[in-house]
Amino acid sequence: MKKCKLDLTLEAKPIHDECGVFGMYDFDHGDVASSIYYGLFALQHRGQESCGIAVSDTRGPKGNMLSYKGMGLVNEVFDNDRLSDLHGDIGVGHARYSTAGESIYANSQPLVLNYVKGTLALAHNGNLVNANELRARLSETGAIFQTTIDTETIAYLIARYRIHSASVEEAVSRTIDDIKGAYSIVIASPRKLIAARDPFGFKPLCIGRRDNTYVVSSESCALDTIGAEFIRDVLPGEIVTISPDAGIQSDTSHCLPEDKMGRCIFEYIYFSRPDSMIDGKSVYEARIRAGRYLAQDSPVEADLVVGVPESGNAAAMGYAMESGIPYGTAFYKNSYVGRTFIKPKQNARESSVRVKLNPIRSVVEGKRIIMIDDSIVRGTTSGQIVSMLKEAGAREVHVRISSPAFRYPCYFGIDVPARDQLIAYRRTEEDIRQLLGADSLGYLSLDRLSQMVDDLAICKGCFTGDYPVDPPEEDIRGKFDA
Amino acid sequence: MKKCKLDLTLEAKPIHDECGVFGMYDFDHGDVASSIYYGLFALQHRGQESCGIAVSDTRGPKGNMLSYKGMGLVNEVFDNDRLSDLHGDIGVGHARYSTAGESIYANSQPLVLNYVKGTLALAHNGNLVNANELRARLSETGAIFQTTIDTETIAYLIARYRIHSASVEEAVSRTIDDIKGAYSIVIASPRKLIAARDPFGFKPLCIGRRDNTYVVSSESCALDTIGAEFIRDVLPGEIVTISPDAGIQSDTSHCLPEDKMGRCIFEYIYFSRPDSMIDGKSVYEARIRAGRYLAQDSPVEADLVVGVPESGNAAAMGYAMESGIPYGTAFYKNSYVGRTFIKPKQNARESSVRVKLNPIRSVVEGKRIIMIDDSIVRGTTSGQIVSMLKEAGAREVHVRISSPAFRYPCYFGIDVPARDQLIAYRRTEEDIRQLLGADSLGYLSLDRLSQMVDDLAICKGCFTGDYPVDPPEEDIRGKFDA
Amino acid sequence: MKKCKLDLTLEAKPIHDECGVFGMYDFDHGDVASSIYYGLFALQHRGQESCGIAVSDTRGPKGNMLSYKGMGLVNEVFDNDRLSDLHGDIGVGHARYSTAGESIYANSQPLVLNYVKGTLALAHNGNLVNANELRARLSETGAIFQTTIDTETIAYLIARYRIHSASVEEAVSRTIDDIKGAYSIVIASPRKLIAARDPFGFKPLCIGRRDNTYVVSSESCALDTIGAEFIRDVLPGEIVTISPDAGIQSDTSHCLPEDKMGRCIFEYIYFSRPDSMIDGKSVYEARIRAGRYLAQDSPVEADLVVGVPESGNAAAMGYAMESGIPYGTAFYKNSYVGRTFIKPKQNARESSVRVKLNPIRSVVEGKRIIMIDDSIVRGTTSGQIVSMLKEAGAREVHVRISSPAFRYPCYFGIDVPARDQLIAYRRTEEDIRQLLGADSLGYLSLDRLSQMVDDLAICKGCFTGDYPVDPPEEDIRGKFDA
Amino acid sequence: MKKCKLDLTLEAKPIHDECGVFGMYDFDHGDVASSIYYGLFALQHRGQESCGIAVSDTRGPKGNMLSYKGMGLVNEVFDNDRLSDLHGDIGVGHARYSTAGESIYANSQPLVLNYVKGTLALAHNGNLVNANELRARLSETGAIFQTTIDTETIAYLIARYRIHSASVEEAVSRTIDDIKGAYSIVIASPRKLIAARDPFGFKPLCIGRRDNTYVVSSESCALDTIGAEFIRDVLPGEIVTISPDAGIQSDTSHCLPEDKMGRCIFEYIYFSRPDSMIDGKSVYEARIRAGRYLAQDSPVEADLVVGVPESGNAAAMGYAMESGIPYGTAFYKNSYVGRTFIKPKQNARESSVRVKLNPIRSVVEGKRIIMIDDSIVRGTTSGQIVSMLKEAGAREVHVRISSPAFRYPCYFGIDVPARDQLIAYRRTEEDIRQLLGADSLGYLSLDRLSQMVDDLAICKGCFTGDYPVDPPEEDIRGKFDA
After folding, report:
1. A76, A274, A342 ranked by CB distance to B329: nearest
2. Is the Cβ of C163 closer than 8 Å to some Cβ of chain A?
3. Which end of chain B is more exposed for a tag (fewer CB within 10 A), N or C?
4. Which residues form the Glutamine amidotransferase type-2 domain (chains A, B, C, D) (predicted)?
């Protein structure tokens, strides 16, 4: 049996989401920065590279946005002094992940700017597919770009449309006519909090309330953290404008029929917190269901069901519930790996994977194990985990994956390796099983994927290559299809 | 029903162990600092306040110990430059927890010193009960103390006994005649690595090997991390001397009969990593068993068994296995709380406990829940977690604790609140149940405690007030018995 | 005699320049970042709040500018790793001073941006008087501003004019038609290094060369530091374009006749380094001359001439040379005050001024002292220094100032206190003398000011209120004329 | 003419003093930490590697010393929070310089310890010549050493003698019987502030007072800074005990006759601040005198006298006064070099010396220059400065040194290069002149050295090899006499 020989990093999962956004408006004019801090803390799993908060006082002059941004986790960037300097009753926050090359201060969010009508602060989660085109168009009429984030492009469009629009929300609406792709945006204007979600609903966004304070958040879990009540999801394509004058105003003119939508299924499979609800579906329940489906569709005799922590655990519980095979923990995961952790050298005797994940021999020894993970990307980590289980004495290791085989690039905000590095690229399931060294392998089927979320319309592009929106041409020919 | 009103901190568990120790000796003279780093990383859960590594070259001059220590986690204190400066084939490392007042640089370990025979580096886990007495005695003959840690007292005794001893291990042996309490010590002398464990075996300590390199570690999990093979535990009371001349030499003259020993049962219940083996028993299995015993002794009809993460999860799985009731996850635990995290203010709207732990409503709603935790100390967190479950819609919450009621102080290295702050202090189980707001409450019985570890001799002092060694008099009258 | 009661900060001089700029282009394609670092180090006295370096490779793609910026001194912001990451043969650097409110990361320079023709990096020293007007005009056509620095306004204009210009230098030329005020700019475009100085020559700017590398610098001293040879000053109003194709190209279409120019005389009096030459005049010699003129115009019998360190020393030497009275040092100046220095509290017993400046009693005792300073702004420090000398036993203290009385605001880049805080505002020389507690007081006359620099055309606005360019209207009515 | 080829570092002077000490006792029980901070700030020139403050409350329990120490400058180590935590009415502070190998946290001072009578905090400036002997003796009776500083040895002796002494000052007195070498010590005991100076008076130490607060300081300048009045110097050999009961008590039993003393003349020549008085002599005046003597003994026709900044300036002024040749500034010295400054690489085009020191061409050109420096150690910097002056156009450069030729090691606290690296080692004055490339060279004579300080008894060991105390044998044979 061929063994997996690929590199392994300490990062268990080589796919990443891009951001968490959070906005607040206290109609009673209390400071919102501190609650935004806790909101971002609850969204930290969506981005750990940089974060920022921008606030302004809706009763003050229109050009007075205060902000602080920095590289690192929310609890590293902000301290009490910095938070308490940020006086203001309206504000937005952002936690950011990015690919290595762009992980620089200039790209941190929110983007704060002065424009013809005062200040704006924007926070954005997603990825535009026509960004290059829009940048080129704007450049040709004199725009200068100080960052490489789509947020700046969106800001420019809003600023330009604002000149001949009656309101900032109208400018946002005209901007939405231009931009294509995935975006959940929160904007603090001098007097309004605005939230918009792309018509396909790629990224989640929801609205909450705490007394007289309105909240917009990437995920509902952040509402719980700050003690706010969930009101509803922002609809795909909806522009929500929150102000004391009009409360919550909704513009649904960009909304599509449900069957055209394309929610990112990976939000349910992996990105979002299990305690979040997205578009009415529980993330945790979706994962439990995926496990149950696997037990129905790929059953196998075994002694124990285990999850690859943390992301495989819920599906493993679902599998255990459905199959009646006991659920157990096969690994200890060391959670102290920080940004400055020194990776073991290639030739060192320390096992790279064991630094982070160590099998519990007494659990594994002599057992037939069903090992559940949410996805296989490069397959290197999965292969190493299978061997660790075998070395720890597992008699059999049956791998079950709570999503279909990952075969295509994502253009809408998931950072994925080049296509030829995907283990499922031009390989059969049997090839993959051998590469992993597993005794059997089962993926979730495409049909089950939709069932996980009660047939909500989802984007399955990374499994099928069919996307709700056309991807940019250059990328298809260039980077991905070697 | 009376509700719990006490303070809640972000620290889920108000009891703490004191340290992890790690030692290495490469007979082939390779540098050991890098492997000690990974060893400490695997022991990080035993102490997060400060850490340090000291190494020396056994072929160099006897006074040449290199060391680096700092406040914070292993990955914060060390970087590549610092590690690669630490050349030496013998060394010890330490990860430290301490109570607030003593959390200062001067108290970080290993303690490195020059004495009549060159250098020594000492790392210590535990607590002496006669430290004040020994310090007074040493002071009266001119000793000066630059720290407040027991390690310095031990070092002084070794230095003084070394004058008239034939070897450093003989000086260690005579020191052991003097010191009382809990101690697992690792010492690097100019040419020998020495490990000693107190006669009661309070704290774990084991020996491993990687090719020609010998390793001593608080827990076996750290051997896995660095790719070393487990050899055996250091016996309670044993002094092990490791050197190229004599290999592993054992002095068992201080060993007691098995029935006199007093291993800290909290190492199995809570402190140690589940993937460690201590004195032949798997920590994970002990926890699973505790859950099974609870299912047998305190059964209750319910829909789901959940653990309070992370420490209650294994016992919850054991309960699920035994009872046949499904195991699930009721909470999301936010793991991004760092040292600089800003705690919500008392009057803030952010829920202190929800910042760290958020119930998954879809799991909990309408269900009868068995909630397993490893212990209840003050009871504040447990009470809040019960209410969170109820607020999230749980129909019933049945609390089961995988240890007996915690009623007495610990003098051997566990940092516990003052006795009158313990929820079980002068309260019946029914009082406690009411205070928690639970529908039923069950503790593990004292008999089951011993069964968990196949009747190994253990210390049950914190449950019974009977200790293997007499505690210091002043403490009993003073701090604890209000 | 009335004593001076005003506040004293540790900052000896309450006026500040705004920046140092530095640019390099190595036609042999070596990396320039390291030399820019030393260049900025030599210009550090011009700005200590933030600094940055941007470089690009003229042979690489046009959108590939690498930059690093940070708050603090050059030696705090850059380390070896950061410098060596900055590969590129063309680049600009900047050291920045700013008033408190704007001392934020977003305002640090160089400004790096993408525009229709690739990337630009701009570094700017000076102050535009029509910035608000230009920003408003740009905003009305959709511009967004992410900083509050004039550099961004200049960048926008260049980007817009570039659309219909044949070259970047043509766009710079058209930009110069629009902007009014003080500016010395260095710009790195994908293939050219461009330097421009405003037509009045407010701020210095010069060109140097080291082998095949061209250098542009605020002051000539930075050329010495990096081993470059001084070529010439950039002319007031000149645009210099440096490229391998055309060498140094000069556009003098904006140049004014010499008598219209308005070099900032404070560059000679105080801001620039004494080892710099500006427009053919030695800064050190100008200061020596000022001292000589004072000796001629305001002679007094005395035992010793001393300077208020460091800025008064050269003029004091000039006074000593001319008068024959010996030159000495009356003060020790503590140079260890860093950014984090804790200022003595108002009610503390520590003398705020003595923390930084302590008189040498043995020098002063019983002597008649001529104390030379370059300027008096608020007068608080000067008054305290006079009293210190008296307390240390000086029989007489005769104050001589090597510039005229400072009475008006500066609109061209010097940060000055509000007008009613200037000691010379609405006070006679005799009033000021009394306020300082001096035995006599002498200022340099306006005529002598021009003689200092051989009658070069200079701006005397802060002494006379007559400026070479009209200041912005709102400022005159608002802030300064209480 | 042979040119100097040796390395040059940014550190202008390769000799260093070792420390500044400062102690305070407020009989009115106010906190002293803040004033100690300013005191250390005034002594920062004596040591920049680490610093610390220890305080205790004389009305509190005897074991309650609070301290904070750190690597770096006073203003880097302390912030407001740290200072305000240090409550106590008695305390000592220390600023430390050390040779590279020992620049570690463990060696920072004050040394704080518990001993039989409570706590002690010690701060020490100097070097013992019998430290190894004393350490060996103490080790043989069981002492352990956690640092490599003499302060620990002194502390041990005090602790041991205290057992059979009636008071701590008696223990200090018996300690002084044992230790040989240079030491100025300040000690805070639970109820007394003690200061002691070695019988030769190598290092300065003086006493001051501010209202009811007593102060002990290495130099008098620190008294000025905190607004205290100078009372007197501590006598060489004197032990001063300060307490509310007895005020200032003096024990002069170890004092020697004046002609046996050996004050370090380099305190006057270079180390101390010019605004300090040591043993009744002004440091500044001594330097002025040295310059005057040089003018008398080594006259030469020239146009300008300049000092090598900062240490040569005062002697240059003295030379100018005596000779009538004008005094000027020939160099700009960049004061922004911090700890993290990146030194130019050997092969870089940046001139290492010009980064720090740049000649002012307009001053130097065409002139005959007398260049005064306080000493020549390796001669590398001096040689480069001479060439810089010549390159800047000086017609002649006449070097005058305000001390005799430095030829022997110092055993009393000055860190000097190995003897064969001293330029004067086995070289004639003419050899040295050629090596420097100077047109003439003159040293101060040994006789003039004593005259500088009105024939106070001084140590001339580094010039003559004759020391007031015998140096340790091993050093003489080992390191220095190659």
Report:
1. A274
2. yes
3. N
4. 19-245
pLDDT value at residue B477: 37
A-to-C residue pairs, Cβ atoms closer than 8 angstroms? 78
What's the confidence (pLDDT) of residue D97? 85
Q: For chain C, which chains pass the contact test of at least 3 CB pairs under 8 Å?
A: A, D
Confidence of residue A414 (pLDDT cuts 50, 70, 90): confident
Among the partner-chain residues D45, D350, D363, the one whose CB lies closest to the CB of C38 is D350
Are residues A163 and C144, on separate chains, in Cβ contact within 8 Å? no
Q: Is D4 a known ligand-binding residue?
A: no
How do residues B242-295 score in pLDDT, each as one tens digit?
999 999 999 999 999 999 999 999 999 999 999 999 999 999 999 999 999 999
Question: pLDDT (tens digit, 9 = 90+) per residue, D37-96?
Answer: 999 999 999 999 999 999 999 998 877 899 999 999 999 999 999 999 999 999 999 999
Which residues of A does the annotation place in the binding site for Mg(2+)?
311, 373-374
Is the Cβ pair A144, C155 closer than 8 Å? yes
Cα separation, A463 vs B372, whole angstroms: 39
The boundaries of the domain holding residue A111 are 19-261
Q: Where are the beta strands (DSSP E) in A352-420?
A: 357-359, 368-373, 396-401
**Beta bridge partners of residue B56, listed in sequence order:** B65, B90
- Which residues make Cβ contacts (< 8 Å) with residue B19, sequence separation at least 6? B46, B47, B94, B95, B96, B97, B109, B123, B124, B125, B126, B218, B413
* Residues of chain C contacting residue A155, judged by C-beta atoms under 8 Å apart: 144
Specify the CATH number for the domain of residue A428. Answer: 3.40.50.2020
Same domain, D250 and D376: no
Confidence of residue A12 (pLDDT cuts 50, 70, 90): low
A100 touches chain C (CB under 8 A): no
User: Do D329 and C274 count as a contact with CB atoms less than 8 A apart?
Assistant: yes
CATH of the domain at D196: 3.60.20.10
Phi-psi group of A454: left, alpha or beta (phi > 0 → left; psi -120 to 50 → alpha; rest → beta): left
pLDDT in tens, C426-441: 999 999 999 999 999 9
pLDDT value of residue D15: 65
| DSSP sequence for D234-253 | PPTT-EEEEETTTEEEEE-T
DSSP state of B101: G
Burial of residue B153, with CB atoms counted within 10 A of its CB: 0-12 exposed, 13-18 middle, 19 or more buried: buried
Q: Looking at beta carbons, which residues of chain C come within 8 Å of D335?
A: 335
As a whole number, mean pLDDT of residues D441-446 equals 98
Task: Examine the domain organization and report whether D257 and D287 are in the same domain.
Answer: no
D57 is in an annotated binding site: no
A49 and A81 co-located in one domain? yes
Number of structural domains found in chain C: 2
Touching status, chains A and B (3+ beta-carbon pairs under 8 Å): yes
The answer to whether residue B10 is domain-embedded is: no
In this complex, is the C-beta atom of D464 within 8 Å of any C-beta atom belonging to chain B?
no
Looking at CA atoms only, how far is residue C141 from chain A in angstroms? 7
At D55 the pLDDT is 97
Chains C and B lie in contact, requiring 3 or more CB pairs less than 8 Å apart: no
Predicted pLDDT of residue B472: 80
What mean pLDDT do residues B195-205 have? 97
Q: What is the ipTM of this complex?
A: 0.90
Are D437 and D374 part of one and the same domain?
Answer: yes
On the question of a cis peptide bond just before residue D244, with omega within 30 degrees of 0, the verdict is: no
Known catalytic residues of B? 19
**Per the CB < 8 Å rule, is C163 touching A144?**
no
Nearest to C363 among D284, D355, D359 (CB): D284
- Tokens at D258, concatenated: 């004046």
Which of A4, A19, A51, A255 is catalytic? The answer is: A19
**What is the reported pTM?**
0.92
Is residue C98 located within the same domain as residue C142? yes
Distance from CA of C142 to the nearest CA of A (A): 4
Q: How far apart are CA C139 and CA D330, in angstroms?
A: 51
Residue D13 has pLDDT above 70, yes or no: no
